[in-house]
Design goal:
- The strands form 2 sheets. The protein has a 3-stranded mixed sheet.
- The C terminus is likely disordered.
- The chain is built from 18 helices and 5 strands.
- It starts with a strand and ends with a helix.
- Strand 4 and strand 5 form a beta hairpin.
- It has 2 domains: 68 residues, 434 Repressor (Amino-terminal Domain) (Orthogonal Bundle), CATH 1.10.260; 300 residues, no CATH class.
- The longest helix has 24 residues.
- It is 42% helix and 6% strand.
- The protein has 438 residues and is mainly alpha-helical.
- It binds zinc ion.
- Zinc ion binds next to helix 9 and helix 10.
- The site of zinc ion has 5 residues, from helix 9 and helix 10.
Length: 438
């Protein structure tokens, strides 16, 4: 017997439309509908459509028909996004970010039902917790040495059950340039965190792929701070500052690094600290000041140096591309790729196509774009003894050959920061100093 009608979930219709960055009006016009039909459809729990109409709707929205007929699992409201969106962030953009998280959440539920994801090990604290204490507790929960640099932070975070998505510079599914030098930088935040899944208990961090390893690492730590401290939402600047304080303290506990801070700190002699603990000079300066390891005068002076001098390699200030900015590869997540591999035996997003999942292929590719591949070189937990080894930068480096999940974030043609012709790695502080004195 031929099926002639199909039950369509309103939330799915809305989700697909937002992920395609289409307005209700556009869908209405393309469907040849009138009045509030699209709105009614989106607001209804379930609507019975004839199969032809549903198929046409699926075509307009470029989602598989099954997507609309599958009950939504995750629910993320804009208010559940843990970030203080800059004022310029439109309501549409926030909706987009929320619905993107919902898609990841549903995919995670699907994967979890096939192979259980790592249990969540984050401490449950509140905004009343001192960020320094929160960072210590988090290190403890993640079984990290309280006194040692964290090697590959993203890996540790995923091991604690937090899914991480690195969004590529261009999305395939919404057909738009998300951010970049020429697009007026519609997205000003570097990432956001939320909780997804049927019961809203799977923490998720969504990051923008940027070229700065310092920024990616620190953003992971910052978002982790939101997850640990701000389960009830982020509404004020104060919480942003808490998350930032948490981030720096997590990466470089002030009580531990105090012994390594030179008596008269300079950008030059702080470099070993940056390299060893994997924290940007910009964040480090502020951290040292807030932890009373440098005074206000020195802080202001070093900050001024960092943000006014031009890095001759990149043409940006040293604040934007710091000395050592290309010493590590930016961290990449791996958990999602690993689970897709486990559950679907797929080692690239393309291999998912024949599985006919409910999500469109281009959206899956967007979700998986930033994942790290190469199980042969998979990251191991850095040895605890690194606390006494000044060469920690090597454990912080990701495995080479992370190219399997292509469309990754590192396509150099799209980099906003030009890579030096000789392949980078040439930037050292002595050159900066000599330029300065010249
Ligand atoms: Zn934040």
């Amino acid at each position: 017997m031929m099926r002639t009608t199909i039950e369509v979930f309103g939330a799915r219709v809305r989700q697909a439309r937002i992920l395609r960055r289409m307005t209700g009006k556009t869908v209405l016009a393309e469907m040849g509908w009138k009045g509030a039909r699209q709105t009614r459809l989106e607001q209804a729990d379930v609507t019975v459509l004839d199969v032809d109409t549903a198929t046409r709707l699926a075509e307009v929205l470029r989602f598989p028909l099954e997507f609309f007929a599958t009950a939504p699992v995750s629910r993320v409201d804009v208010g559940n996004l843990l970030f203080r969106a800059p004022k310029a962030t439109s309501a549409m953009e926030r909706e987009y970010l929320a619905q993107f998280a919902v898609s990841v959440g549903d995919l995670l539920e699907d994967l979890n039902s096939r192979w259980q994801l790592p249990p969540v090990k984050l401490p449950d604290l509140t905004r009343l917790t001192d960020p320094v204490a929160a960072a210590r507790t988090t290190r403890e929960r993640l079984s990290l040495d309280p006194d040692a640099p964290i090697g590959y932070l993203t890996y540790e975070v995923e091991r604690a059950g937090v899914a991480v998505v690195l969004r590529a510079r261009r999305t395939k599914s919404s057909g738009e340039l998300e951010w970049g030098p020429g697009d007026g930088v519609r997205e000003k935040h570097l990432g956001y965190a939320t909780r997804v899944g049927e019961y809203g208990d799977r923490p998720l961090i969504v990051l923008r792929a940027v070229d700065s390893w310092e920024r990616i690492r620190w953003t992971v730590a910052h978002e982790l701070g939101h997850l640990v401290l701000h389960a009830d939402g982020v509404r004020e600047d104060e919480q942003e500052e808490q998350a930032s304080r948490f981030a720096s303290e997590l990466l470089a506990p002030a009580a531990v690094i105090a012994a390594e801070v030179p008596k008269v700190a300079s950008l030059h002699n702080l470099m070993p600290l940056k390299q060893r603990w994997g924290i940007s000079l910009g964040a480090l300066l502020r951290h040292l000041f807030e932890s009373e390891l440098i005074d206000a005068h020195r802080y202001a002076m070093l900050r001024r140096q960092l943000y006014t001098r031009i890095n001759p390699e990149t043409g940006h200030t040293w604040g934007r591309t710091e000395p050592g900015w290309d010493e590590r590869e930016p961290e990449q997540p791996r958990l999602l790729a690993k689970w897709v591999e486990r559950c679907y035996n797929a080692t690239s997003p393309a291999m998912l196509a024949p599985r006919r999942l409910i999500w469109p292929q281009d959206l899956l590719e967007d979700i998986l774009a930033g994942q790290r591949s190469a199980p042969s070189t998979s990251v191991t937990t850095p040895p605890k003894s690194t606390s006494s080894t000044p060469t920690n930068a090597s454990t912080g480096a990701p495995p080479s050959g992370a190219a399997g999940w292509e469309h990754g974030s590192r396509s150099s043609a799209e980099n906003s920061i030009p890579v030096s012709a000789n392949g980078g790695k040439v930037l050292d502080f002595d050159r900066f100093r000599s330029k300065r004195q010249a």
